[in-house]
UniProtKB/TrEMBL annotation:
Signal peptide: none
Protein's UniProt name: Glycoside-hydrolase family GH114 TIM-barrel domain-containing protein
Gene3D superfamilies for this protein: Aldolase class I (3.20.20.70)
Superkingdom, natural source: Bacteria
Amino acid sequence: MTREPIAFYYGAGELERLSRFDKVVLQPDFYSRQELDLLRERGVQTLGYLSLTEDVGPPAPWQREERNPDWGGAFVYTGHPGWVAHVVGQATSAMAGGFSGLFLDTLNIEFNYPEDLPHLLYLIAAIREEAKPDYLLANRGFGLLPQLADLVDGILFESFSARWVDTESYGPWPDDVLEVHAEYAERLLGMDIDVYALDYAEDEELTEFAYRRAHEFGMLCFVTDRVLSKI
């Protein structure tokens, strides 16, 4: 059986389908140790989802007043000692629960909170040191380059070619955005890391466009829906 490189799935179960991939990004709370061990036995590297700059939990001293307008989580003061301890604890728990590695999300804060970038690099280094993941995959984080490439094993370019326009529709990026993304991709491919693309589409034409463009840039690609419910 030919294995596919990577999948992002934020639902539960589907172990047979997930077994087709080399790497899968999953929500830690949705999988038991037994399920993760089964995937490991089948040669699948499981990466637990971890948000580094947004908190969907109850009110806490590290939270900012501002919230993500799309998903509702509170932005955080990334360098707050309580937040660092909280995230490192989540990472350690995920690894103890059977995950092989971690997927680090919400790293693109360079425009809203550039002052937090050094704290974010420290947090990633602390996760690497304390949780000891076999594999760290970062989502974007372009404002952290080139230092980020020394801390992780791979970087994901989310929404490289295609995007969700609203909750009901999908489409390609405009040409000017695609050109900027191409420049970032070329920079990433010059670094000693794995590079992946994650795109959003539902129709066959847009899906094929995303896979074809990722292939042109030497990137491994996965295409899914807005809430990452497809495998």
